[in-house]
Design brief:
Number of helices: 23
Largest sheet: 7 strands, mixed
Helix content: 40-55%
CATH class of the largest domain: Alpha Beta
Structural class: alpha+beta
Strand order of the largest sheet: 3-4-5-2-1-6-7
CATH architecture of the largest domain: 2-Layer Sandwich
CATH superfamily of the largest domain: Beta Polymerase, domain 2
Radius of gyration: 28 Å
Distance between the termini: 80 Å
Number of strands: 11
Number of domains: 3
CATH topology of the largest domain: Beta Polymerase, domain 2
Shape: elongated
Strand content: 5-15%
Length: 480
């Protein structure tokens, strides 16, 4: 293991002073808590990000004060206050644009088989810092004097871009196994390397994640995917065996290539698609980072291992891996407790990611284009991104042809959208008009009639009310 370089004290002290200049609220916090006889310090990610020149508006503090004493110190000068974290010693507050979370020193104990720690309050700043996940998060700025406290070499590790645990990795990960996933997430977020002893511990202790709730695992996966470099974290999860436990579909993509390499490395292809989807996020209305498009890129080919077949002519096929993959996506995301909306969005993208390849050289009819838009629904912009990102060929001529073909499809969609309002594609008659035309009450038949008119709308474009009624009556005659 390489030795981290010495700390850059002058640079760090300048950063701490800049912190004071940028946040007048620090003076108020330091003054009120020390006047009441309590210690208080800015801590954790806030200090780390400040030293990296990336200060945000969320400020984390640790203090010797108990929750009721924290509330007393905040009384009368904050804009809002909340105590949803009181059981864990945390009181939150808002002052202008700043969000404050102030937590009593912690000295938690963990049972080997428990999902949650037994919350115990501590009595020292160093003791509180020692129970944190990594040295770069185990630094503090003591108030009101702006004294930088770094008992575990966090500044040196920050300069070295190094993730190391304050105690032994075995002790740290044993206390909270989720820290192994946090190592991958911080690697993706900060671009840091994880120390060799921590990586070894992750390999040895991966099965400890079985005691961590699905919701906590889900939240770490989300944060990792939204980081600037998800590939770093995903690779670490796969290499340490953690992905096999929390997202087994990913390492399963490491298909053994046949000796003639008749299909590309699906795992490496997938990681490249994720990176290319990120590069295309400026095409999305809301920009990025966008979890749904990134996660769809990660899962778009997970159906391939189950559908791989070697044909008699020695070619390799993955027929229907899009449909199979969509079902697998739903199962995995449901197990990880993602919201129904996210599950529907990602699964739809996985199921549709091959649809464009039936477009050929642009010979789709207008009705086929309408169906593409209808099936994509509110995920159309993300489907554009995923489809473009899925091109990882090294053949530049082929890549340019695919880009031109998809440009043509997007242009056709835009023209039809302008002419026919594709984004709100509906039949020419609504449910009330259908019931009036057919003289029927509400019920399943209205839905069938609605779907019939929608299909005609897709096939032929807008019909107008008169033609739609005639078509509806003709359909109704065939039903009765």
């Amino acid at each position: 293991m390489s030795t981290p370089p010495p700390p850059l004290s002058a640079v760090q002290q300048t950063a701490v002073q800049a912190l004071h200049d940028a946040i007048p609220v620090l003076h108020q916090v330091g003054q009120d808590f020390t006047a009441a006889g309590h210690e208080i310090a800015l801590v954790g990610g806030t200090v780390r990000d400040t030293l990296l020149g990336q200060l945000g508006s969320d400020l984390d503090f640790t203090t010797s004060a108990r929750p009721e004493q924290i509330e007393a110190c905040l009384s009368g000068w904050v804009d809002a206050r909340w105590d949803v974290g009181r059981a864990f010693g945390t009181i939150g507050a808002r002052v202008g644009s700043w969000q404050l979370e102030i937590t009593t020193y912690r000295a938690d104990s963990y049972d080997v088989d428990s999902r949650k720690p037994e919350v115990r309050f501590g009595d020292s700043l160093v003791g509180d810092l020692q129970r944190r996940d990594f040295t770069v998060n185990a630094m503090a700025v003591r108030l009101p004097g702006l004294e930088l406290v770094d008992p575990f070499g966090g500044i040196a590790d920050l300069a070295a871009r190094w993730l190391r645990t304050p105690s032994t990795p075995e002790e740290s990960f044993g206390d909270d196994p989720l820290r192994m996933m946090r190592a991958a997430r911080f690697s993706a977020q900060l671009g840091f390397e994880v120390s060799e002893d921590a990586v070894l511990a992750m390999r040895d202790m991966a099965d400890r994640l079985a005691i961590v709730s699905a919701e906590r695992v889900r939240d770490e996966i989300r944060k990792l995917m939204l980081a600037p470099q998800p590939r770093r974290g995903l690779t670490l999860l796969v290499d340490t065996g953690i992905a096999a436990l929390v997202l087994p579909e990913l390492p399963a993509l490491q298909l053994e290539l046949d000796e003639h390499h008749r299909h590309k490395d699906v795992y490496e292809h997938t990681l490249t698609v994720v990176e290319q989807a990120i590069a295309l996020e400026d095409r999305l209305p809301e920009g990025g980072p966008d979890f749904v498009s990134r996660f769809a890129a990660l899962l778009h080919d997970i159906g391939k291992p189950r559908t791989r077949r070697f044909a008699d002519d020695a070619t390799v096929t993955f027929h229907h891996h899009d449909v199979v993959g969509a079902k697998m996506t739903r199962r995995r995301m449901k197990a990880l407790r993602f919201s129904n909306g996210e599950i529907d969005a990602v699964a739809r993208l996985v199921e549709l990611h091959l649809r464009f390849h039936g477009y050929g050289s642009g010979e789709w009819t207008d009705s086929a284009v309408r169906r593409y838009v209808r099936d994509a629904g509110d995920q159309l912009d993300r489907l554009h991104v995923l489809t473009r990102a899925d091109c990882t060929t090294r053949n530049e001529r082929k890549a340019q042809r695919l880009r031109r073909t998809y440009d043509d499809l997007e242009q056709r969609i835009a023209r039809l959208a302008e002419q026919e309002q594709l984004e709100s594609m509906r039949p020419d008659l609504d449910g009330r008009q259908i019931m009036q035309t057919l003289g029927i009450p509400p019920g399943p038949t209205v839905g069938k009639a609605y779907n019939f008119l929608l299909e005609r709308r897709i096939d032929e474009g807008p019909l107008g009310e008169e033609r739609a009624r005639a078509a509806l009556l003709e359909w109704w005659a065939q039903q009765t």
